[in-house]
Amino acid sequence: TEMQGLIWAGAALTLVGLVGLAYCILRAARAKRAGLDDTAMRAELQRVVVINLAAVGLSALGLAAVVTGILLG
Description:
Distance between the termini: 9 Å
Radius of gyration: 16 Å
Number of strands: 0
Number of helices: 2
Helix content: over 70%
Order of helices and strands: HH
Largest sheet: none
């Protein structure tokens, strides 16, 4: 029903957010292995932080949707 759809949509959002977090970890590790200079490393990590915050926000929205679907279901 509707609440079940909300739960599944929330779970999908959470999963996308977790994939984004894993991507951030891999990208930061790759930048560290590349041995970039301080300026390039700082710029790369600033881009990773933006993606990381978006992924955490997406996961939080997904979890909120799951909890809402459970409570209202």
